[in-house]
Write a structure and sequence with these properties.
mainly alpha, Growth Hormone, Chain: A, 18 helices, 80% helix
Length: 466
């Protein structure tokens, strides 16, 4: 066999190993975006456990607070202990957590299962980007991140549809039972991931910084959720602010920080981080308000509404591989600016054509394309700004900013909508018309925020050139 043939065989085997490894990572990660199926399950859970509707929010809070507060800590632990090892633990832990949720004899047990599920999600998400980028040459890092974004978008698109089918056929616990074997299979397939070339690092783990970070993120997210009870929100925000200040002080002092803060001195890096939070914040307007708009449209079945809502994550999914290829030819800042423009255009279209189902789907997909493109470029910036040995922290920071945007969006956008709708009602509009005003004005505000992000980036470039 000639040397050229040997090289072709080696390249073919390398591509196969990378594809097999990517499949393992995506399969293990899939259970996290599939959690959107639980939203469909809310009415069935309340009926099964005899709950007042407001209590259902703790299904989201218990899971989100746990996963978000642990992401960066797990990312740092994975950088020290090995990403493959922590990912395998996360898959196994998630499988057990789904079983606990499905078997829950009471609502407190279900919440305990959701906390365990949040731990599993934190373990899995803290390693996914690091594992998938390690499978490809550094020159193809953005393409690997595009593939990861595709998998995440696929899970988000399938979740509501799959949840509706499972709950209708098998009952409330099916959305948890169905994911247990997926998590377990993801762990088994992940055993084929290549073992790390180097032994685990002997860096010290900053335990004080970890606890301060966990308390800070958990308290600040809880403050956002409790904004309608000002005293509790103020107490939680105070605790979160003090813990965050202590965390920053600790990270600047220690030799082995959980999160190296030096990249944030670069305004472009900080702007990109803020941008990812902001775009996920405004993008959440779709999941928050469009379901109510679809319910107002005559003749739309639940299945059709679920398919229409899947347009946003479908756009994210489609954007992943496209943005991954463009990232090697287009500067990351330009790709992020284009993504922000697409999000703004999509949200503007939703505000302009709220009563046309086809137009809504098209605009949601446009916003999803922009969100997916921005996230690929942002993850590429993150992983490029931090050393390869800290890829777990880099990926965790990316996932954390996404979650912070979603949680903040749920609070801020609902407050804007309620204020706008109440103002319209006080002007004498009937409830249907007041809803339309609140819907339109909320999306107009959401569409304006990415424009501010683009303007800030243009100003940054102008200052740099001057």
């Amino acid at each position: 066999m000639s040397s050229d043939q040997d090289a072709k065989v080696a390249r073919s085997r390398g591509r196969y190993r990378a594809a097999r490894g990517a499949f393992a990572v995506l399969l293990g990660t899939l259970v996290v975006p599939l959690d959107s199926a639980v939203n469909v399950d809310f009415p069935f859970i309340t009926r099964h456990f005899g709950l007042p509707i407001p209590l259902i929010q703790w299904i989201v809070i218990s899971y989100t607070l746990t996963s978000s507060s642990l992401l960066l800590v797990f990312g740092r632990a994975a950088d020290i202990l090995g990403h493959r090892r922590v990912f395998l633990v996360g898959c196994g832990w998630s499988a057990l957590a789904f079983v606990v949720c499905a078997l829950a004899p009471s609502y407190p047990w279900l919440l305990a299962g959701r906390v365990l599920q949040g731990v599993g999600a934190g373990l899995v998400l803290s390693c996914g980007p690091a594992l998938i980028t390690a499978l490809y040459p550094e020159t193809q890092r953005a393409r690997a991140l595009g593939l990861y974004t595709l998998g995440f978008g696929l899970g988000g698109a399938l979740g509501p549809v799959l949840g509706g089918v499972l709950v209708a056929r098998f009952g409330w616990s099916a959305v948890f039972w169905a994911r247990a074997p997926i998590a377990a299979l993801g762990g088994l397939v992940s055993l084929t991931l290549p073992a790390p070339a180097a032994a685990p690092r002997r860096d010290r783990f900053d335990l004080l910084g970890a606890w301060l970070l966990i308390i800070a993120i958990g308290a600040l997210l809880l403050a956002l959720n409790r904004v309608r009870t000002p005293l509790w929100a103020l107490l939680a925000a105070g605790l979160g602010g003090l813990s965050l200040a202590g965390f920053i002080r600790q990270e600047l002092r220690t030799r082995h920080p959980i999160l190296d803060l030096h990249p944030f001195r670069d305004f472009g890096f900080s702007l990109a981080t803020i941008g990812n939070t902001l775009l996920n914040l405004v993008g959440f307007a779709v999941l928050l308000l469009v379901p109510f708009q679809l319910a107002r449209m005559p003749g739309l079945s639940t299945v059709v509404s679920g398919l229409l809502l899947a347009a946003l994550p479908a756009g994210v999914m489609l954007a992943g591989p496209i943005a991954g290829r463009l990232a090697s030819r287009v500067p990351s800042a330009a790709l992020m600016a284009a993504g922000a423009a697409f999000v703004s255009a999509g949200l503007t279209g939703i505000a302009a054509f709220p009563a046309r189902a086809g137009a809504l789907a098209g605009m949601m997909m446009l916003a999803g394309l922009g969100l997916g493109a921005f996230q690929v470029a942002f993850f590429d910036v993150l992983t490029g700004a931090m050393p390869a040995r800290n890829r777990g922290v880099a990926g965790s920071l990316g996932m954390l900013t996404r979650t912070l945007g979603l949680v903040t969006g749920a609070t801020v956008l609902m407050a804007v909508f309620q204020a706008s709708r109440t103002g319209a009602a006080l002007r004498g509009l009937d409830p249907a018309a007041a809803f339309s005003v609140g819907f339109r004005e909320t999306f107009e505000l959401a569409a304006a925020l990415p424009v501010l992000l683009i303007a800030a980036d243009l100003l940054r470039r102008a200052v740099r050139r001057s």
